[in-house]
Fold this protein.
Amino acid sequence: EAEVAQSPRYKITEKSQAVAFWCDPISGHATLYWYRQILGQGPELLVQFQDESVVDDSQLPKDRFSAERLKGVDSTLKIQPAELGDSAMYLCASSRQGQNVRSGNTIYFGEGSWLTVV
Amino acid sequence: GQNIDQPTEMTATEGAIVQINCTYQTSGFNGLFWYQQHAGEAPTFLSYNVLDGLEEKGRFSSFLSRSKGYSYLLLKELQMKDSASYLCAVRDMPGGATNKLIFGTGTLLAVQP
Protein backbone atom coordinates (compact mmCIF):
# COMPACT_ATOMS: atom_id res chain seq x y z
CA GLU A 1 0.00 0.00 0.00
CA ALA A 2 1.36 3.42 -0.99
CA GLU A 3 2.38 5.70 1.85
CA VAL A 4 3.33 9.29 2.49
CA ALA A 5 7.04 9.33 3.32
CA GLN A 6 8.50 11.80 5.79
CA SER A 7 11.93 12.43 7.25
CA PRO A 8 13.45 12.80 9.70
CA ARG A 9 11.25 10.89 12.12
CA TYR A 10 12.72 12.69 15.11
CA LYS A 11 14.67 15.92 15.36
CA ILE A 12 16.12 17.73 18.37
CA THR A 13 17.44 21.20 17.73
CA GLU A 14 18.50 24.19 19.76
CA LYS A 15 16.42 27.34 19.62
CA SER A 16 17.50 29.83 16.96
CA GLN A 17 18.80 27.01 14.77
CA ALA A 18 17.33 26.04 11.41
CA VAL A 19 15.46 22.79 10.83
CA ALA A 20 13.95 21.21 7.73
CA PHE A 21 11.46 18.43 7.12
CA TRP A 22 10.96 16.51 3.90
CA CYS A 23 7.85 14.83 2.52
CA ASP A 24 7.14 12.61 -0.48
CA PRO A 25 3.38 12.22 -1.07
CA ILE A 26 1.57 9.21 -2.45
CA SER A 27 2.21 8.93 -6.18
CA GLY A 28 -0.50 10.68 -8.18
CA HIS A 29 -1.67 12.89 -5.33
CA ALA A 30 -1.65 16.47 -6.53
CA THR A 31 -2.59 18.00 -3.19
CA LEU A 32 -0.03 18.10 -0.37
CA TYR A 33 -0.53 19.42 3.15
CA TRP A 34 1.68 20.26 6.09
CA TYR A 35 -0.03 20.07 9.47
CA ARG A 36 1.34 20.79 12.93
CA GLN A 37 0.06 18.85 15.92
CA ILE A 38 0.84 19.93 19.45
CA LEU A 39 0.52 17.22 22.10
CA GLY A 40 -3.08 16.79 23.19
CA GLN A 41 -4.51 18.80 20.31
CA GLY A 42 -5.77 18.07 16.83
CA PRO A 43 -3.67 18.76 13.72
CA GLU A 44 -3.61 22.35 12.47
CA LEU A 45 -3.09 23.12 8.79
CA LEU A 46 0.05 25.14 8.07
CA VAL A 47 0.15 25.08 4.27
CA GLN A 48 -1.63 23.38 1.38
CA PHE A 49 -0.20 22.87 -2.11
CA GLN A 50 -2.01 22.06 -5.33
CA ASP A 51 0.78 20.74 -7.54
CA GLU A 52 3.56 23.31 -7.05
CA SER A 53 1.27 26.20 -6.07
CA VAL A 54 0.37 27.28 -2.56
CA VAL A 55 -3.42 27.43 -2.18
CA ASP A 56 -3.58 28.12 1.56
CA ASP A 57 -0.84 29.33 3.88
CA SER A 58 -2.99 31.53 6.08
CA GLN A 59 -1.86 29.75 9.28
CA LEU A 60 1.83 29.57 8.37
CA PRO A 61 4.03 31.87 10.53
CA LYS A 62 5.79 33.34 7.55
CA ASP A 63 8.40 35.21 9.52
CA ARG A 64 10.07 31.90 10.38
CA PHE A 65 8.38 29.15 8.40
CA SER A 66 8.69 28.46 4.70
CA ALA A 67 7.49 25.64 2.49
CA GLU A 68 8.13 24.71 -1.09
CA ARG A 69 7.12 22.07 -3.59
CA LEU A 70 9.20 23.09 -6.58
CA LYS A 71 8.37 20.26 -8.99
CA GLY A 72 4.93 19.52 -7.66
CA VAL A 73 6.00 16.23 -6.09
CA ASP A 74 8.01 16.22 -2.87
CA SER A 75 8.03 19.11 -0.44
CA THR A 76 10.20 20.72 2.23
CA LEU A 77 9.08 22.62 5.31
CA LYS A 78 11.70 24.83 6.93
CA ILE A 79 11.80 26.64 10.25
CA GLN A 80 14.40 29.33 10.84
CA PRO A 81 15.00 30.28 13.57
CA ALA A 82 13.35 27.58 15.66
CA GLU A 83 11.62 28.61 18.89
CA LEU A 84 10.71 26.57 21.95
CA GLY A 85 7.02 26.80 21.05
CA ASP A 86 7.68 25.04 17.74
CA SER A 87 8.07 21.71 19.53
CA ALA A 88 5.37 19.53 17.99
CA MET A 89 4.75 16.78 15.46
CA TYR A 90 4.81 17.96 11.87
CA LEU A 91 2.56 15.89 9.68
CA CYS A 92 2.63 15.73 5.92
CA ALA A 93 -0.44 14.49 4.11
CA SER A 94 -1.67 14.11 0.54
CA SER A 95 -4.86 13.58 -1.42
CA ARG A 96 -6.05 13.30 -5.00
CA GLN A 97 -7.09 16.38 -6.93
CA GLY A 98 -10.67 17.25 -7.67
CA GLN A 99 -13.94 16.52 -5.98
CA ASN A 100 -15.01 12.95 -5.50
CA VAL A 101 -18.18 12.80 -3.48
CA ARG A 102 -18.04 9.05 -2.99
CA SER A 103 -14.50 8.80 -1.65
CA GLY A 104 -14.27 12.26 -0.19
CA ASN A 105 -10.74 12.67 -1.54
CA THR A 106 -9.43 11.15 1.65
CA ILE A 107 -6.36 12.78 3.11
CA TYR A 108 -3.62 10.29 3.98
CA PHE A 109 -0.99 11.15 6.55
CA GLY A 110 2.68 10.28 6.83
CA GLU A 111 4.18 9.03 10.09
CA GLY A 112 5.12 12.55 11.12
CA SER A 113 8.30 14.28 12.19
CA TRP A 114 8.69 14.94 15.89
CA LEU A 115 10.47 18.21 16.62
CA THR A 116 11.87 19.09 20.03
CA VAL A 117 13.40 22.54 20.43
CA VAL A 118 15.67 22.92 23.45
CA GLY B 1 -16.21 31.21 13.29
CA GLN B 2 -15.16 27.60 12.98
CA ASN B 3 -15.54 25.19 15.85
CA ILE B 4 -15.45 21.44 16.24
CA ASP B 5 -16.34 19.95 19.62
CA GLN B 6 -15.82 16.44 20.88
CA PRO B 7 -15.37 15.01 24.39
CA THR B 8 -11.82 15.05 25.67
CA GLU B 9 -11.78 11.56 27.15
CA MET B 10 -13.95 8.44 27.30
CA THR B 11 -13.58 5.06 28.96
CA ALA B 12 -15.23 1.83 27.87
CA THR B 13 -15.00 -1.89 28.54
CA GLU B 14 -13.60 -4.53 26.21
CA GLY B 15 -16.40 -6.11 24.16
CA ALA B 16 -18.78 -3.20 24.71
CA ILE B 17 -20.06 -0.47 22.37
CA VAL B 18 -19.00 3.17 22.58
CA GLN B 19 -20.29 6.27 20.78
CA ILE B 20 -18.07 9.30 20.30
CA ASN B 21 -19.95 12.49 19.43
CA CYS B 22 -18.81 15.45 17.39
CA THR B 23 -20.56 18.76 16.78
CA TYR B 24 -19.33 21.35 14.33
CA GLN B 25 -19.85 24.92 13.20
CA THR B 26 -17.95 25.81 10.04
CA SER B 27 -18.20 28.37 7.25
CA GLY B 28 -18.88 25.66 4.71
CA PHE B 29 -19.28 21.92 4.69
CA ASN B 30 -18.07 19.35 2.21
CA GLY B 31 -17.74 16.20 4.26
CA LEU B 32 -16.82 14.91 7.70
CA PHE B 33 -14.00 12.50 8.45
CA TRP B 34 -13.07 10.35 11.42
CA TYR B 35 -9.46 9.43 12.03
CA GLN B 36 -7.87 7.13 14.59
CA GLN B 37 -4.55 8.13 16.11
CA HIS B 38 -2.50 5.92 18.40
CA ALA B 39 -0.05 7.66 20.71
CA GLY B 40 2.98 8.95 18.83
CA GLU B 41 1.65 7.89 15.45
CA ALA B 42 0.01 9.62 12.51
CA PRO B 43 -3.79 9.73 12.10
CA THR B 44 -5.25 6.90 10.02
CA PHE B 45 -8.48 7.23 8.06
CA LEU B 46 -11.56 5.51 9.48
CA SER B 47 -14.66 6.90 7.78
CA TYR B 48 -16.17 9.62 5.63
CA ASN B 49 -19.70 11.07 5.58
CA VAL B 50 -21.00 13.75 3.23
CA LEU B 51 -24.69 12.83 3.12
CA ASP B 52 -27.00 12.39 6.10
CA GLY B 53 -27.21 8.91 7.51
CA LEU B 54 -25.15 6.01 8.71
CA GLU B 55 -22.05 4.57 7.06
CA GLU B 56 -20.99 1.15 8.32
CA LYS B 57 -17.56 -0.40 7.95
CA GLY B 58 -17.00 -3.53 9.98
CA ARG B 59 -16.92 -2.75 13.70
CA PHE B 60 -16.97 0.98 12.99
CA SER B 61 -19.96 3.09 11.94
CA SER B 62 -20.26 6.83 11.47
CA PHE B 63 -23.42 8.94 11.39
CA LEU B 64 -24.00 12.45 10.06
CA SER B 65 -26.79 14.99 10.44
CA ARG B 66 -25.94 18.11 8.46
CA SER B 67 -28.95 20.07 9.71
CA LYS B 68 -27.81 19.55 13.29
CA GLY B 69 -24.08 19.89 12.64
CA TYR B 70 -23.61 16.56 14.35
CA SER B 71 -21.79 13.32 13.82
CA TYR B 72 -20.93 10.28 15.87
CA LEU B 73 -18.51 7.40 15.57
CA LEU B 74 -19.76 4.08 16.87
CA LEU B 75 -17.29 1.37 17.82
CA LYS B 76 -18.66 -2.13 18.45
CA GLU B 77 -17.08 -5.17 20.09
CA LEU B 78 -14.36 -3.03 21.56
CA GLN B 79 -10.85 -4.42 21.64
CA MET B 80 -7.88 -3.28 23.69
CA LYS B 81 -6.18 -2.10 20.50
CA ASP B 82 -9.01 0.41 20.00
CA SER B 83 -7.47 2.50 22.77
CA ALA B 84 -6.47 5.63 20.86
CA SER B 85 -7.44 9.19 20.13
CA TYR B 86 -10.34 9.64 17.69
CA LEU B 87 -10.29 12.82 15.63
CA CYS B 88 -13.33 14.39 14.02
CA ALA B 89 -12.48 16.57 11.01
CA VAL B 90 -14.65 18.70 8.75
CA ARG B 91 -13.82 19.71 5.20
CA ASP B 92 -14.46 23.41 5.03
CA MET B 93 -14.68 25.29 1.75
CA PRO B 94 -14.45 29.00 2.47
CA GLY B 95 -13.92 31.24 -0.53
CA GLY B 96 -13.46 28.43 -3.02
CA ALA B 97 -10.61 26.65 -1.20
CA THR B 98 -10.85 22.91 -1.51
CA ASN B 99 -9.97 19.92 0.62
CA LYS B 100 -9.09 21.89 3.74
CA LEU B 101 -9.66 19.72 6.81
CA ILE B 102 -10.34 21.31 10.18
CA PHE B 103 -9.73 18.98 13.10
CA GLY B 104 -11.23 18.77 16.55
CA THR B 105 -8.94 18.22 19.52
CA GLY B 106 -9.65 14.49 19.57
CA THR B 107 -11.32 12.11 22.02
CA LEU B 108 -8.94 9.88 23.94
CA LEU B 109 -10.62 6.49 24.34
CA ALA B 110 -9.36 4.07 26.98
CA VAL B 111 -10.57 0.48 26.65
CA GLN B 112 -10.40 -1.44 29.91
CA PRO B 113 -10.42 -5.23 30.39
About this structure: Chain A has a mean pLDDT of 91. Residues 52 and 72 of chain A are 4 Å apart (CA to CA). Chain A touches chain B at residues 31, 33, 40-45, 48, 55-56, 91, 95, 99, 101, 103-112, 114 (CB under 8 Å).
